[in-house]
Every structure is written in C-alpha cells, then in structure tokens.
Write a structure and sequence with these properties.
Helix content: 25-40%
CATH superfamily of the largest domain: Enolase-like C-terminal domain
Shape: globular
CATH architecture of the largest domain: Alpha-Beta Barrel
Distance between the termini: 70 Å
Number of helices: 15
Structural class: alpha/beta
Order of helices and strands: EEEEEHHHHEEHHEHEHEHEHEHHEHEHH
Strand order of the largest sheet: 7-8-9-10-11-12-13
Length: about 425
C-alpha cells in the first residue's frame, strides 16, 4: 500500500529571542570570578500551526545580535529541513571569524552557536509533530537515565544575584553549602559531601587553575581520602600548568584520578603529557571543533573529548562526533556551563543516545537556583537525570519565570561574561595568565 505523504511541511512563523540573567554564586576559576549573574539566551520557534520549539544557549550580546540577524533567514523555513537551514546560516555567517580568539577554550564561530540554538528548537518541534522524544531522533535511547558528576568549585562565601556576596543565614543542607566558602582542601571536601548527599553523584570533579598546584592536588588527595577509591575523581586546571608541572603532579595523582582534564595548553603539550602519564587526559580546550580532530589524532593529545552541543554545532553534529570518537578510540563525555533545564534536557537526550558512555557528564546545575521550565527544576536520582517524558525535549517554557529572568538581565547591566573584570573587583590588578604555574 502506498503511503500518502504531506504535500507541504510546517513553516516557522515566529522567532523569539530572550536574553536572561541567572543567579550565579562567586565561583573561582582560571579566568577569574563568576559575576553575580550568568547570561543565557532562550530561543522560541513557533510554526504556522502554533507548535513551539525551544532551546537555550550561553548568552552574550554578540550572539543575541547574530540571532536577530538570523530571523529574516529562518522565518518561513520548514523545521524539518535542517540541512537547508544550516546551509543558509553558513552562507550568512560562515566566512566570519572572531576578531581575536586569544585563549578562548572553545570555537567561537558564530554559525556554530546560532545553528545549535535553532537546531535544538527545530528538533523540539519535530518531536512534537511526530510525538517522539528527541533521543529517538538521534537514533534511539541506549539508557533511560544519564549519569552526571559533582562539579566542585573553589569559591568565596556568598550566594550571587541580588545578594551579591551575602548569605541567607536560614539556609540548610546544600543551600547552605552553596553559599559557603571553599578555599582550602577541608572546605572543598565539605562542599563535596553536601553536593553528593543532595544529588547522589557517584563521581567528583574539581575546577582548578585557581591556586598553586600543590594546594589543588592536596584537595584531590583529601577528596580521595574522604570518599575512598570507588568514587572517581577528576581535576581540571584549565590549561594553566606547564608541561613540566602537569607531568610532576600528574604522576603524583596516578591511581587517584579517573582523568586529568586540560592540565596544559595546546595539542602538542597535551600529547607530551599524555605520553608521560598513565592517567587518561580529557579536553574541552585543545580539541574543540571538527577541524581540530585530525591533528589531535596525529599527536595523540587526549583520550576523552568533552563535547558541548552548544559549541559543536548541535545535537546531530554531536552524534557525528560520537562516531569519529569510536573510529579513533576516543571516549566522549560532555562539559558544562551555567545552564538551566532546557540545556540540561538537551544534554540528557544526547547522553541517552551516545554509545559507550563511560564517564559521567559535567553539570553546573546544582549551582543554579533559577529555572525556566514548567514544573521547576529537573530532578537528580542517584546522580542521574531520567530522559524527560513527552515529545521533543519533554520540557516546556515557563513564561512567567522567563519574564522574571529577562528582567534580571535588563537590571544587571551585563552583556557578556568577563571573569577577569569580576576578579579585579575583589583582587585589584588581577590579570588572567594563559600559563600560570
């Protein structure tokens, strides 16, 4: 029997872009200090039959302008025709290069960011039309829930947002730990206990590159002593170490770390360290685009690529990355940013589809207190998030919450992330250094 296909597909009639500011605590990292708010941008695509697709990406004023510029190209397109949409955006933005990538740890091509936001929203629409979750559009689920790792930060005391560096004296449990300082190994261990108790995480990552290596390695050793050998540990110095420092402390942590993430800068340096250590190396800094992969394979610069669909061109491109990693014997996991539930849901759909997920994904989610999805914050069970029920992403936009966080954006005055400037408010004259130790 012949199957009758529709003569025409849906068309995108509206393209809404809403920048938001999310409360963020004073977390320390190699680039400086988090501002009291983290910026995100929410995209809504609405079809001519009023089906809404949503996505969420890291926000800054340049990407928001690029999204506005994309409206005339995307309105009228069929959300099923993602190849056509990609080609249109490539023609518009593909020749543009950042004025100065400097030491930015990810690919800043405009088309990658813009297309990733549009693609996720289109997949959300497609899933709703055919009544299937996005994971099924990526080949189907390999797991029903996706594991995440506790993500520890050195931090100053304070809650972020309107409280700035203030605290709520009535807070208890993780809410209190989220406000507490973590500036030494003992406080880092306390943060880890509170986060793991609240969310059930089974592995732990420490964001380093803040203090001299001895102090950060001591924190890892303290975590190993506190949690025992069955809890995998990771350290991310954010490429601030020299090759010599990476090898020295990497050898000391052999048998303790599950992997060492970006101890030094650049593929050649990473390859030198990788040859010297038994511990696997992971990266979201030296291999950050498809164009970086041939050299990475030639040099052997990492064992694990920490992807991010926002910076690799969307969910379908991330599945292509999975195949490349399988071909060349690399593992794939995901790094994180200060995301809310839309991005987390997209990560879960992708994480449920990729094969051989040996390393739990990163997530900043415990550090955020805001949310923009109906029903509130997504739940962690034993450190994992279940694939959302329902078609598409399986989450819906809470318009009232979106309006509140957009008001935050208008009030806070931030237009891009600049951790160096924030750090200088606390430590006058502080400067980012590409290699510090």
């Amino acid at each position: 029997m012949a199957i009758s296909l529709p003569t025409k597909g849906p068309k995108i009639k509206e393209f809404n872009i809403t920048p938001i500011a999310v409360v963020d605590p004073p977390l320390l990292n190699a680039a400086g200090l988090h501002a009291p708010y983290a910026l995100r941008t929410v995209v809504e695509l609405i079809t001519d039959d009023n089906i809404v697709g949503i996505s969420e990406i890291p926000g800054n004023i340049d990407i928001d302008k690029a999204l506005e510029r994309s409206k005339r190209l995307i309105i009228g397109q069929d959300p099923f025709q993602l190849n056509k949409i990609k080609d249109i955006l490539q023609a518009e933005f593909g020749t543009e290069k950042p004025a100065d990538r400097g030491f930015t740890p990810w690919d800043q091509r405009t088309v990658v960011h813009v297309f990733s936001s549009i693609e996720v929203a289109c997949l959300d629409i497609i899933g709703k039309i055919i009544n299937r979750p996005i994971v099924d559009l990526l080949g189907g689920r390999r797991r029903d829930a996706v594991p995440f790792s506790a993500y520890l930060f050195y931090k100053y005391e304070g809650a972020g947002g309107e409280l700035e560096f203030g605290t709520d004296p009535n807070a208890t449990g993780w809410a209190a730990a989220r406000q507490a300082s973590a500036l030494n190994p003992e406080e880092v261990v306390a943060q880890a206990h509170a986060m793991c108790k609240e969310f059930g995480f089974k592995s732990i990552k420490l964001k380093g590159g803040v203090f001299e290596p001895r102090q950060e390695v001591d924190a890892i050793l303290a975590l190993h002593k506190a949690f025992g050998p069955d809890v995998p540990l990771r350290l991310d110095p954010n490429a601030l170490w020299t090759v010599e420092t990476s090898i020295q402390y990497g050898k000391e942590m052999e048998g303790v770390l599950e992997y060492l993430e970006d101890p030094c800068r650049g593929q050649q340096n990473m390859a030198t360290v990788r040859k010297a250590l038994k511990t696997p190396l992971a990266t979201n800094m030296c291999t950050t685009s498809f164009g970086d992969i041939p050299k990475a394979i030639e040099l052997g610069s990492e064992d694990i690529i920490l992807s991010d669909h926002h910076f690799w061109g969307g969910l379908q491109e991330s599945m292509k990355l999975t195949s490349i990693c399988e071909t060349f014997g690399r593992d794939l996991s995901m790094h994180s940013n200060s995301h809310l539930g839309i991005s987390l849901a997209a990560m879960v759909h992708l994480g449920a589809a990729i094969p051989n997920l040996r390393y739990a994904l990163d997530t900043h989610y415990p550090w955020q207190s805001d949310e923009i999805v109906v029903g509130g914050r997504l739940k962690f069970e034993e450190g994992s998030v279940a694939v959302p029920e329902g078609p598409g992403l399986g989450v819906e936009l809470d318009k009232a919450a979106l309006a509140k966080l957009h008001e935050n954006y208008l009030k806070c005055g931030l237009t891009k992330r600049d951790d160096e400037i924030e750090m200088q408010k606390v430590v006058p004259g502080w400067k980012f250094m590409a290699t510090r130790w």
